[in-house]
Amino acid sequence: MGKILDGKGLSDKILNKLADSILENNYSPTLAVILVGNNPASEVYVSVKEKACNKIGIKSVVYKFDENTEESVILNQIRELNENKDIDGILVQLPLPKHIDKFKVIETISPQKDVDGFTLYNFGRVALGLKPHCYPCTPKGILTLLDEYKIQIEGKNVVVVGRSDIVGKPLANIFLKRNATVTICHSKTKNLAEITNRADILVAAIGCPKFITAEMVKDGAILIDVGISRVDGKLSGDIDFDEVFDKVAYITPVPKGIGPMTIASLMENTLELYKSHNH
Length: 279
Ligand code: NAD
Fold this sequence. Notes:
Blueprint: H1 7-25, E1 30-36, H2 40-56, E2 59-65, H3 71-83, E3 89-92, H4 102-108, H5 120-127, H6 137-148, E4 157-161, H7 168-177, E5 181-185, H8 192-196, E6 201-204, E7 222-225, E8 229-231, E9 234-236, H9 241-244, E10 250-251, H10 258-276
Parallel strand pairs: 1-2, 1-3, 4-5, 4-6, 6-7, 7-10
Antiparallel strand pairs: 8-9
The chain binds nicotinamide-adenine-dinucleotide.
Nicotinamide-adenine-dinucleotide (NAD) binds near residues 186, 208, 227, 229 and 258.
């Protein structure tokens, strides 16, 4: 299976390295996670993040709030965590209930503790091609995986399908900084297949299972599947893996592709923030 970009394998390698470094240096990083409401997918993601923390020696503290919690309560909790010297990273699990202003919540996180890289400060630095306190975890995981396989990025036609603030937009900026020629597509893009067919590296971050089919993909392309959907109880990506497999040079599977890389990046970010704080 030489075509598979093994996100799970690389993630395990990174987590083991981080665990060794935490143990050897007697580090004590702490990640605070805020979870509002009981969205089942969010609960799963938070538990996956907690497990990764436990595995490598990062302390995780989850602050759970009822669905109807007032926005001001969440903002006050974040302010308290900003001040708390024992806390290195703060993560607010998205989505938030409708009555809470997501942007206000994210902006309340101190950029120095913004482990997801979602604040204006960190997002803006990535947009300017400057180093943020933290890169957003999914884009960072994608680049780490491509670099591990020594896939050249400079000069490549990169097409990112999906323009979310957490994946598509920062990822496009990072590729641009790495001298790729970048196209961002979205739900209103015309002639999508024509554009995706020009991609040397094609990233799907849409949330529609098996949306990218063989006729949308150039021979020898490198495919990155960010999508995670549940279909008949099974996880499915945005790319029709079986259909495109013979055409591509490399592809990430779902599961065991970008999901684990995102977790590895979150752990790396937490440790980096810990080291940047005066303990
Ligand atoms: P989102 O859900 O906020 O937005 C979806 C994007 O897809 C939008 O920009 C939209 O314009 C685009 N889109 C929708 N329909 C389209 C169409 N028909 N043609 C072209 N573009 C279309 O995006 P998100 O938060 O980045 O999430 C995307 C997917 O990635 C979801 O399945 C999510 O669960 C998954 N995700 C996975 C990870 C991971 O760690 N693997 C991390 C974040 C998100």
